[in-house]
Amino acid sequence: MALASVTFFALALIAIASAVGVLIARSPIYSALSLVLNLLSVAGLYLTMNASFIGVIQILVYAGAIMVLVLFVIMLLNLDALPSPRSIGWGPILGFVLGIGLLAQLLYVMLTSFGISLEAAEPVTTAMAVENGSANTLGQILFTEYALHLQVAAILLLAATVGAVMLAQRRFA
Amino acid sequence: MFADFIPLFVIIAIALGLALTLLAAASWIGPKRPNKIKRTPYESGMDPIGSARERYSVKFYLVAMIFIVFDVEVVFMYPWAVSFHDFIDAGLVATVGVMTVVGLFVGILTLGLVYDIKKGGLEFD
Question: Transmembrane segments in this chain: where (chain A) (predicted)?
Fold first, then answer.
């Protein structure tokens, strides 16, 4: 499947480039738009892995709704473009290298002492991925076995609504 | 199968290509004779006053927040719609069960909307 590989590498390259763009953009709006591109390319990656439902939801919820919220926050706080960066000293670079070293060490300890293997227990076939990634499979299990979890999610969303109303309605004398 | 999604990627590529081609063609073929009036934000319109970066009311944020909540609700309802025929095939008990679960889910979220309307969160003055 050469085409799948080409698509994967193209999307991965866009994802990494746009993620770097989020970090280095001086204007918060450019940063947010780079994040949209990043989320869209990750959605494409989900599609190449046959996770169709999560791919569409990624676009609908993250690139659609969450980004609207992010842009609203930018407008609300009236963020301006950041000033040009000052030159980075040796301290942060040394800290970065030490942090990477510590992370590698932690991962090594975790992988060796807890017996976590990087290899999957059983290889995932395309048919399995297609079956498990479909909205039908999710619906079958979400409204029966995980019905209680769904109601908990509903309560969480209710709390978000009530919290937003509470915060926005507060009068400052 | 990944092959099923190839048309999707093709249409995205066509849309992207068309947009880029049109922009490139406009800047390449189009005449460029700028003058002072043409460079104003609203040509033959009002002169803009002040900065465009104004702070917005928190009311808009509230609307965005409620939009997200109901967006997520629709996301949960999509698998319900897709698998509903299988629940009907599984019999009356399964159908009533799934309707109860979804009804409760929507009911809990509607409480939030009712609270918002009662509090006047959607009123703009």
Answer: 29-47, 59-77, 89-111, 146-168
